[in-house]
Write a structure and sequence with these properties.
Blueprint lengths: L16 H9 L4 H25 L10 E5 L5 E3 H15 L4 E6 L6 E2 L9 E9 L10 E9 L19 E9 L3 E6 L4 E7 L4 E6 L10 E3 L10 H12 L4 E2 L5 H11 L2 E4 L12 H14 L3 E3 L19 E4 L1 H19 L7
Parallel strand pairs: 3-5, 11-12, 11-13
Antiparallel strand pairs: 1-2, 3-4, 5-6, 6-7, 7-8, 8-9, 9-10, 13-15, 14-15
The structure holds 6-O-phosphono-alpha-D-fructofuranose.
Amino acid sequence: MVNSAPSQSSEGDCITLSRYVLHDLKSFSQPAQDLSALMNRIALAGKLISRRLSRAGILEGVLGFTGETNVQGESVKRMDVYANDIFISVFKESGLVCRLASEEMDQPYYIPENCPIGRYTLLMDPIDGSSNIDTNLNVGSIFSIRQQQGEQIDGEGNDLLQDGHQQIGAGYILYGASTMLVYSLGNGVHSFTLDPSLGEFILAEENVKIPESGSIYSLNEGNFWQWEDSIREYVRYVHRQDGYSARYGGALVGDFHRILQQGGVFLYPGTVNKPEGKLRLLYETVPLAFLVEQAGGKASTGTQRLMDVVPDRLHARAPLVIGSPRSVELVESFHQQSTSQSQQPAMADQ
Ligand code: P6P
């Protein structure tokens, strides 16, 4: 058994990610070793992506578009492809995963037969918010870890169409002023900062807890007239109240990280034309829902707990309301009001 948390002094001046994961899992069993190795591979991908992003304006072929369109119908940035390839290359011969599913790939990538095949599946958005890259603003990678159930691996990935409770871990890497890795394996949320001089992610905060409520609301108000009325009523309410602040960076990981640290709520609601919203469940919002619940927060579609949603396809989308419990409940209350009003019997003619 692993004893209490390694003290700073026993590690010199830092606790590395791989060391901490074994403490987090309180075990040296083979599954714990595998998860520690898996987290280390994710960290390696983050270091390689961070290094390339830090030279974006200098190196050829980092900025700009490939000219391709991905399965989402979105123009593909060169960094989207680079990051996707990086995750595949660091896991291909790891013996840890059987496949990787990604925003950038129509179907999951299955580890070739001539490579060792593991029992985990990594779902990821390799670079989320890539439109921010060319303007040197923050972007992120989002990941979700699932364990293969049974002996057969479904070749179409249909066994991935399960709710968020099937995740055994999730997290993100934030490429900002510093590069941070934030994860949970079901025992709380822990954050690490990359020390480039060491090439290691060093423990910054363990058992991160989101504030019960917060003054920040984060959503793209350019969609105001496309939202349903309950969301417009919520926005009108916070406009009228003192003390609320709007913050929106256009990249989910950075906007979520701010809410996790300072409290408040992030929303990406559905619109009249796209009631399911824009954000993808399996590798964008449900990993963050897993994380925020571990930190004492809430995540919903506005009407349903996000972790309970069962996707009908790999790239399924759903509306997102995520953050401090009280702040999410305030948004949900506008949905409830709207629903109860619509159920009121029409006033009898006078
Ligand atoms: P909009 C980035 O493209 C992304 O997928 C998320 O990172 C971000 O939260 C959202 O879309 C921004 O979308 O419509 O506000 O530009």
